């Protein structure tokens, strides 16, 4: 809080320590690439492109937060760390450079811009699917636990319908429902 008064608008990244130096370096590099995406977002006027970048940044932040919490999941994210994120940053670097050209864009330049703009939703989907893949096994475990719980409740006769019938019986003085 005190630093925000002296250095307003400045974000200081606190180094991550997962216990694995190589992973810490990958996380730092990945977060630097996300920061680069953030900077590029500010240089893009296209609202739809900015919205896709927002999706990518949000998913990327969540991925790195999950990775810090559970470093063992790094293997699940190799493709994201080594391909998707760096490639997205490279494409956006080229895109921003093209957007900053002073001359009227040629047909080829327009095609390149359209190509990148059409690829942004695909990249955002890939980022979000990488995030979802982190929780896929957890979701299966939770779903299985819920199914087992339902089966046990039904087997014990504690379903909502059965509980309401028992309440009705108590209200009538113990007379079972016909």
Question: What is the topology?
Answer:
Blueprint: H1 2-6, H2 21-41, H3 47-69, H4 78-99, H5 107-155, H6 160-171
What characteristics describe this protein?
Single alpha-helices involved in coiled-coils or other helix-helix interfaces; elongated; 5-bromo-4-chloroindolyl phosphate hydrolysis family protein; mainly alpha; 178 residues
Query: Per DSSP, what share of the residues sits in E-state strands of 2 or more residues?
Result: under 5%
What is the C-alpha radius of gyration, as a whole number of Å?
A: 26 Å
H and E order? HHHHHH
**Distance between the amino and carboxyl termini:** 68 Å
Q: What sort of overall outline do the alpha carbons produce when their principal axes are compared?
A: elongated
Major sheet size, sense and barrel closure: none
Which segments are poorly predicted (pLDDT under 50) over 5 or more consecutive residues?
Answer: none
How is the CATH topology named?
A: Single alpha-helices involved in coiled-coils or other helix-helix interfaces
Protein name: 5-bromo-4-chloroindolyl phosphate hydrolysis family protein
InterPro entries: ChloroindolylP_hydrolase (IPR018770)
Pfam families: Halogen_Hydrol (PF10112)
